[in-house]
Every structure is written in structure tokens, then in C-alpha cells.
Amino acid sequence: MNKDQVKGAVKDAAGKVQQKAGEMTGSQEQQMKGVEKQAEGKTQKVAGNVKDAARKH
């Protein structure tokens, strides 16, 4: 795994936690921020996958 894959996975996980915390507290703002962070993390993880694949070829 490269650093983008790791950072992406961490952002995705943190976003899930933030979203759940928002659900538990009734904060739609925190829920949306969590969803955004998840999307950002997944995008970064895909970018890392692409870099990894390019390096292998």
C-alpha cells in the first residue's frame, strides 16, 4: 500500500465515524461532513490504486 491508499482509508473510516456521531446527536451538518470525508477518502484511495498499478507496469 502506498501513502495515498492508507490516507484514503483513514479518511473514509473517520468520515464513517463522523457521520454516525452526527446521526446519534441529530446533527445533519456533521452527518454531511462525514459523508464528504468518506467520498474524499475513497477518491484518494482510488488515486493511490492507480499510482500503484502504474508503478507495477
UniProtKB/TrEMBL annotation:
Biased composition (Basic and acidic residues): 1-14, 34-43
Residues covered by the CsbD-like domain: 4-56
Residue numbers spanned by region Disordered: 1-57
SUPFAM superfamilies: Hypothetical protein YjbJ (SSF69047)
Family as reported in the entry's similarity comment: Belongs to the UPF0337 (CsbD) family.
Protein name: General stress protein CsbD
Source organism per UniProt: Noviherbaspirillum autotrophicum
